[in-house]
């Protein structure tokens, strides 16, 4: 690892530390509840659940729920159940996504569908969603249940929207933002909003945290789009070209396609609509994206959403949780460096 890479890695870890430190003790309890709620007499359920849960994710979404509860000085224990429910919703989405996308790898490991099959992956994802809703009901907050159940429906809509847009190179920026708003940002916003809900705060605080999570989620997904075509993604453990091989239409592709000439547009159609997406095609796609500033402009758009996330917190009084939530914006965006 070179000196520059080490420095960037340290910066990213520094931006993560405040959130990790703030939620460390609560996350121990979340992790214990995750293990408990993933148990079942059906052997395959804990096998698949534990395989996914232990695969190396940073669990940013549940930490956001815990941090927002701290932000509003919540004194109870229900944030543990809600944070766990958020993580189970996310894990279920990953299981379902990998089946829909026919993915073979996630975070450098074989996907559950490759090991146990599509049917088992779908059904275990359903089990985790069921356990998530059980925890929501146990909390007893109709408002929190409403926010999270609404997010679950929106996420499903986003997945269907993405399926409809897959391999459709004519997808425009507006339509794509609607997809990632639903598919990714909805859970971030719900995870952030339930903090002030269980702390007993009203519309102003809920709206601020909802907007924070929404903007953060959009920034997070746009950077994921960049990582699929970025050489730095190797260092971060993401498999370069997965989106390309699966025919996903993402922001860097949309920008490069709309700015390209007729010959270049034919290439994109052949690569993404007709599955001409071998390693040589991926290299040409990366060349075109660089030529038309697809990565640079996508990163800039992510930074705009990051600024909106910061602005959303402007009415919230200064405290360690607010600072940690601002720092995590930097982490989400600077992953690409």
TrEMBL record:
Instruction: Provide the cofactor list for this protein.
Output: Mg(2+)
Is Lipid metabolism there in the keyword field? Answer: no
Which UniProt keyword terms apply here?
Magnesium, Metal-binding, Transferase
Pfam families tied to this protein: polyprenyl_synt
> In which domain of life is the source organism classified?
Bacteria
Q: Kindly indicate whether the keyword Acetylation belongs to this entry.
A: no
The record's section on PANTHER family has: ALL TRANS-POLYPRENYL-DIPHOSPHATE SYNTHASE PDSS1, GERANYLGERANYL PYROPHOSPHATE SYNTHASE
**What is the similarity comment for this entry?**
Belongs to the FPP/GGPP synthase family.
Q: What is this protein called?
A: Polyprenyl synthetase family protein
| Native source species | Bartonella bilalgolemii
